[in-house]
Automatic annotation (TrEMBL):
Protein name in UniProt: Phospho-2-dehydro-3-deoxyheptonate aldolase
UniProt GO cellular component terms: cytoplasm
Key words of the record: Amino-acid biosynthesis, Aromatic amino acid biosynthesis, Transferase
Enzyme class, first EC level, given as a word: transferase
Organism (species): Candidatus Magasanikbacteria bacterium GW2011_GWA2_40_10
Length: 347
């Protein structure tokens, strides 16, 4: 094999032992998972809102954001199920920083062993506050150190056609959002759900195992190929494909960022708000698609916008909650959006 061994990574038990969960937090995660499942299956009429920074870094700013989100949650929890994005892994179209789990300091060389402990502590701290958290399953072989912390998991647009990720989704014990691929294809997105809801026989940790299938696997629409895919026609297409395949608990979360927030071919983080408003308007008088849409995903941090990492000038970096990957809504915009969204559901 064409690689050099750098160091041995601590096993999952050692990582978990370093930053364990309290019994109270474990029980809360089980309740959060069940509530999310109930929304996906239609037993709970709230909307799921998966909200937080594009990438969860640095930890101090992430925890400050979590405190604000926790306080806001008290005002909207009867209408919205808030799940915080604590995304520690970042897929890249070509190359770039792949998140704090791989490189906890973007100015230093990658150090996965350090990154695992760094991100585990950050995630545990957020969960212990009382917030459910979400992450994208990019590197599935790292899952043992984090899986029990998560109340919702995403399979990203670059991974959703990959068989390993589909099988992983069929094995995890919480709801999984399968994004449509970067092409924007709804049919392929639905195919990934069918695969995730199905049982599979695979090798896992030296054993032949059978996954049980995930009845709460659902579609995340994020646009693709420079085109949005959240319109009424797109939602009707989703419904048709799901009916055709007999999808259990047919459900959609609309990612109001990525290609769904393009303006003149470029992502505009401010457009996330108007996209959500358009979706609510589109489904208002269409019962089938209204029942299909279970919530939204958006990118938000303490400060609006984003910044570039200048490797030659680390002092120039704002570490107080300004994204170093995709541009995000600022806190004030986020707070107003979520309060308005909860109010619209009340009306």
């Amino acid at each position: 094999m064409n690689f050099n061994i750098r160091k041995k990574i601590p096993d999952g038990d050692k990582i978990i032992k370093a930053y364990p969960l309290s019994d109270t937090a474990r029980e809360k995660i089980l309740r959060d998972r069940q509530e999310i499942n109930d929304i996906i299956s239609g037993k709970d009429n709230r909307l799921i809102v998966i909200v937080g920074p594009c990438s969860a870094w640095p930890s101090e700013a992430v925890l400050e954001y979590a405190k604000k989100l926790l306080a806001l949650n008290e005002k909207v929890k009867d209408k919205l199920k808030i799940v915080m994005r604590v995304y520690i892994q970042k897929p890249r179209t070509t190359k770039g920083w792949t998140g704090p789990v791989n490189q906890p300091d973007p100015y230093l060389p990658a150090d996965i062993a350090q990154g695992i402990f760094y991100t585990r502590k950050m995630m545990v701290d957020v969960v212990e506050m009382g917030l459910p958290i979400a992450d994208e399953a990019l590197f599935t072989h790292n899952a043992s150190a984090f899986q029990e912390l998560l109340s919702w998991v995403a399979i990203g647009a670059r991974s959703t056609e990959d068989q390993e990720h589909r099988i992983f989704a069929s094995a995890v014990d919480c709801a999984v959002g399968m994004k449509n691929p970067t092409s924007g294809s709804i049919e392929i997105g639905v195919n990934s759900i069918v695969a995730a809801q199905h049982q599979h026989v695979v090798i896992f940790d030296g054993y032949e195992v059978e996954t049980m299938g995930n009845p709460y696997a659902h579609l995340v629409l994020r646009g693709g190929a420079g085109t949005p895919n959240y319109s009424a026609n797109h939602l009707e297409e989703v419904f048709t494909h799901m009916q055709k395949h007999g999808v259990t608990n047919p459900a959609v979360i609309v990612d109001i960022s990525h290609d769904n927030s393009l303006v003149d071919g470029k992502k505009d983080h401010r457009r996330q708000i108007s996209v959500a408003e358009e979706v609510l308007e589109n489904i208002k008088n269409h019962q089938e698609t209204k029942n299909l849409v279970k919530g939204f995903m958006l990118e938000s941090f303490l400060k609006e916008g984003s910044q570039k990492v200048d490797v030659n000038n680390p002092e120039s970096l704002d570490r107080s909650g300004l994204s170093i990957t995709d541009a995000c809504l600022g806190w004030e915009q986020t707070e107003k959006f979520l309060l308005d969204l909860a109010n619209k559901i009340t009306q």
